[in-house]
Batch of 2 targets.
Target 1
Amino acid sequence: MEFIAIMIAITAILIGLFCGIVNNFLNKLYIYNTIKGFPGPKAYPIIGNAHLFIGNIGDVTNQILKISENYQSIFRLWLGMQLFIVINNSEYMKNVLKSPNITEKSEEYGILKLAVGNGLLTAPVSVWNTHRKFLNKIFLEKYLKSYTDVLVHHSIALIKKLETLIGEELDIRHYVFRCTLDIIYDNMFNIRLNSLINENCELPESIDCLMDTAMQRILKLWLRPDIIFYNTAVGKKVRTCMSHLDNITSNVFLGQTLFYFFYY
């Protein structure tokens, strides 16, 4: 009886594995048939197009821009066995964004949680719907008007900063990102972060580090497993960035809590 029970269990496991393999094969076959007319760079078995994204984040960005120039409007990329459809056309994008089926996130968004948490960008539909309804009220015109002074103040600070850099080659995103952080902290938390004029503020660099690393993990399959990633130089750098980010955030909100405690 024991032998029969073992054989039944083994048979059930084998049938389950077989059904899983067949189901996966049929899903991939359906995907191949659906996208066979889509242009894109040559993909290889198992790795897909992952070989195109070797290098630092600058190399990866340049490679993506190069591919976008070669395949305009819409094209496909394979990262391992995972298919990505890249849209580079505003009309196509508008049709996609109108679809009610795009709010559920793919598993790649889980990597971004390291940098942005479980907010609108990464949250599952159930959380996303709740947060979106709350945020819709914040962006009503009557509330936006109350933010005007803060927006103007930090916009002027950005202009003054850029005026000091006339004639120099610069990364405009660096300064716009810092200005955006200043506006968010001032509006949402009533805190003057002043990261735009305080180059020693580590918050923007820590967020940048986490976002760049998240993009590398999405595009570089060998960095996906945690056990490998956190033992690489990039993974160790992320731990340092996370520590800085936690310290900055804790200090900011501790100061805000003490402010309300003593003055309200």
Note: The chain has eleven helices and two strands.
Target 2
Amino acid sequence: MNDLLNDDDNFDAPRHQNNRNGDVEMGTQIPMNSGELGLDDFFKKVQQIEKQYERLNELLQKLQDAHEESKAVTKASAMKAIKQRMEKDVDEVGKIARVIKSKIEELDKENLANRNKPGCGKGSAVDRSRTATTVSLKKKFKDKMAEFQTLRENIHHEYREVVESDG
């Protein structure tokens, strides 16, 4: 009688060396790195937006400082110079805000397009990561714009009070 357990000719490959690349229930696994999934470019764009946020923070701080400085100034010429600086900074904030908004909208479009790639469909880890990052950028943008608007309203309100008390 043949020894079936020790006969190596009956097996082509041991069970752990099959070509399935992992668990049978997981299906075929295609190893992908983050570059193939589109995350490298995505996070580079996120970093660019973060740099714009840093610039926005600097401008908001400059506006706040100029506003505080304007409270102590008594000369009209000095006040005019401060107001001009502030107007320039407000314009710059508007430009940066438009850039950030357009970049976030661009990320949204890319997120939708990225869902067509294999392994990146709706609900996949890549999709969830991209969506969560974009949502946090949107919230940060909304909060920054609210902060800027509050500062503008305070400046305008206090300026009105000064003008009305002088008149």
Note: Helices lie at 39-72, 76-114, 125-166.
